[in-house]
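Objective 1b: paired records.
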Amino acid sequence: MKPVELNFQTRQPLVDRFFWGTMIFLVLLAGTLTLMNTTVFFSNEAYLDILKKQIEQKKMTSEKKTDFPPLKQYTPRQIESLKSEFQYLKNLLKKDMFPLSQFLDAIEMAIPKSIIINELALNKGDSSLLLKGESPDAASVAAFLNGLKASRKFSIDFNKGSVVGGSGFSFEIIAHWKWDDV
């Protein structure tokens, strides 16, 4: 028979050895992090002071630049000439430009989820946009028209609407850009 060996040694001395080493390491780590944080804080404070000084300098220089030269006086003939040049430029803009992005923003804000736009055609000549689409019912089209009219930058013509196969409604809308805002 083999004798039974009993070990009455505790693990306490092992824990004591690692405890003090770990504590010293943690205290050194906390001190290092505190020192680093303090250094970063004071360097940021110095940077903020530099920025404050630059802002004050810019304010001082902007206050000095408020001396504007007197406005030039125009004769009535020159004013009429400027107005005619402005009107000429306005007419050029009407011919060459259509505010498509503004119109698309108005469509995005006004269109119900049930409406599908099938065709979008631009006519630069008379500054209009043709919209053709489908809807499950006429009420959605009416809501869409009201939303487009609410933008107040367009005059809306509802050309035609018709029932498609008993299950839907097709429509055609022409939107004319109002050039009063230019």
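Objective 1b, second protein:
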Amino acid sequence: MKNSIIIQIFSVFIILISCQEKKEKQIIVDEKSGDSTVINSSIKTDSVTPEQRISDIKTWYSDAQNSMKSVDKNCGKAEEKWVYKLDKELSMDFVNRGSVCNLPNGIKVYSGEFNGYEWQQKLSYYFKNDKLFFVYYESAAESCYEENRIYYDENQRPIQFLFKTNDCDGNEASENKKIEDKKQQNDLTKIVDKQIVEIKRILEQKK
């Protein structure tokens, strides 16, 4: 009887520990690989509101733009040529470019320009202390033009998507609008995630 009571108490203790561990941990699944990683949910959470974070980002962005005008010597640049074949006999040459600039106050900016037949992409990635806080992405194809802005929180997670477009009428783009659609957000995130890899690859070839 005594042993039975001890066993019951021990079982309850194990259940309590298990429940506590579930509270302290969460599983993050990588969308690309499907792999899962257990992380401690007690890690530092955002210490500022999204509104304050966006306000800070606008200040850092403005400072970065001002610094970019005078620190060209602190920028590394590279380019890569590629050929687009229109048919068996006719082809066109294009150049993709990448750059990285180290700015004051721990800010680093990666920029890329990608060119093709009647289309172009330009992207800039802003980091502070090696953490991504803002991406500016513009694209053009024939008479179409679009700008996208992504703001990131302290843990490099997107907190706001903005875009504006000219609706392919050849005129200037309209005012910024928020992107609320999750699929559109995910599609945009995939593009910027892919192109930062390409920018770094172009820069690596120069070494």
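The two ends are 75 Å apart (CA to CA). Strands lie at 25-29, 36-40, 75-85, 91-102, 107-116, 119-128, 131-141, 144-152, 158-165, 177-178.
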